[in-house]
Design goal:
393 residues; 4-stranded antiparallel beta sheet; transmembrane; DUF4271 domain-containing protein; DUF4271
């Protein structure tokens, strides 16, 4: 019994060693000299299964007689790369089931991924090779073209390694994550403290509510806790946008004179809190100016209504802008350089539309008071907008 077990052990060990030697000794497919390989599709071949009516992975023991073998090529992730197709026997190349051309024996055929993406306008492309049975004589490589003036690229080419660099965390990225967490904490706290008022404050439909019997300002004064923290969050959203512009070398209102060099996350966070405090104070200074102008024009009863609607609209606009900037920044989309000349257009459009909306929503029935209201809104909205655009950039 022991001798049988010993014999079986050595037989298994020899078989395992031989299979390992054969696997390690498999021929390596090398592209032409002007390319270096990024990915080998040799283990990704598919065959069509009539039973499942779909493509299934190629199996050596089952599909060796198949003359049609296919691959799904991701055209989005592999932009700027080149696809090389080769067959040791004469074969035919199909794309999306349509015959393209003949693949000459032992010759690489080049397919540009960018051109395929523009032509087919699909995220994935079905590539099929028809020829001799099996996949042993077929090779498909994803490659990158070498730069002739780059000796380091030429020296490092020839091996099937993907040079994947880890994502670098920038100080602004860390700050953006921290600011998002802080704003979410304050938002949840306000919601738990006064859920009904919070829901009405963030409701865009509530902005257009002009029913005198159901005005939001009757239960939420500008100096109440809910409105004060709502203004704090809005100031933080505005501060985040300004810090983002400053981090991308867009000096709005010359804020670089009061900000640090932004060499680390803590300094950016410090600038964020400074700007948030400034915006908070400016908001309530504006409220004081609104009260004074309202008393002079006999519009003191509408001051609180207009102030809350200003805070509502500012919160909704800057929250949407915050989420857009946050998403684009973390996806590493460099969009600001192309939009630099139009960066003030959304703000101009928003403040102009808010001016008209405030006049329509809060318009009283008397014609004389209408003139006072229009003058009042010009003082608190249009004049600051004109001055702001003049000194913004």
């Amino acid at each position: 019994m022991k001798s049988i077990s010993f014999t079986l052990f050595w037989a298994f060990l020899i078989a395992f060693s031989v299979s390992g030697t054969m696997a390690s000794g498999a021929a390596e497919v090398n592209p032409p000299e002007q390319y270096f390989p990024v990915y080998d599709y040799q283990n990704d071949w598919l065959v069509y299964n009539p039973q499942y009516k779909n493509y299934v992975p190629f199996s050596q023991g089952v599909n060796e007689g198949a003359r049609y073998v296919s691959l799904y090529i991701d055209l989005v992730k592999n932009r700027r790369y080149v696809l090389l197709v080769k067959a040791e026997n004469e074969s035919y190349l199909f794309l999306e089931g349509s015959l393209q051309n003949k693949v000459a024996k032992d010759q690489w055929q080049e397919l540009n991924i960018d051109s395929l993406y523009k032509l087919y306008k699909k995220d994935e492309l079905l590539l099929t090779v028809y020829g001799s049975s099996g996949i042993g004589d077929k090779s498909v490589l994803l490659c990158n073209k070498k730069k002739r003036n780059d000796p380091m690229t030429i020296e490092q080419a020839g091996r099937n390694f993907i040079n994947i660099k880890p994502i670098t965390f920038t100080p602004f990225g860390n700050f953006a994550a921290l600011s998002l967490i802080l704003i979410l904490i304050l938002t949840v706290w306000i919601f738990n403290a006064n859920p009904l008022s919070f829901i009405r404050l963030i409701n865009p439909i509530e902005f257009f509510n002009n029913d005198p019997r159901d005005q939001l300002s009757k239960i939420n004064k500008p100096y109440s806790n809910t409105v004060i923290f709502f203004v704090i969050i809005t100031s933080m959203l505005m501060s985040f946008i300004v810090v983002f512009f400053s981090a991308n070398e867009l000096n709005v209102f010359s804020v670089s004179t009061i900000l640090s060099e932004k060499s680390n996350t803590l300094q950016i966070v410090g600038d964020f809190f400074i700007l948030s405090a400034i915006f908070f104070l400016l908001t309530y200074l504006k409220y004081i100016g609104m009260v004074m102008a309202g008393n002079m024009l006999n519009l003191d009863k509408t001051v609180d209504i207009i102030f809350l609607k200003i805070i509502q609209s500012s919160y909704l606009f800057y929250a949407a802008l915050f989420l857009l900037v946050f998403m684009l920044s973390f996806n590493h989309i460099n969009w600001l350089n192309e939009m630099r000349t139009y960066v003030l257009a959304p703000f101009l459009l928003f403040y102009s539309a808010r001016f008209l909306a405030l006049y329509i929503v809060t318009k009283p029935p008397g014609s004389l008071i209408n003139l006072y209201l229009f003058s009042y809104l010009c003082v608190i909205e249009i004049i600051p907008l004109i001055v702001g655009i003049k000194f913004a950039l």
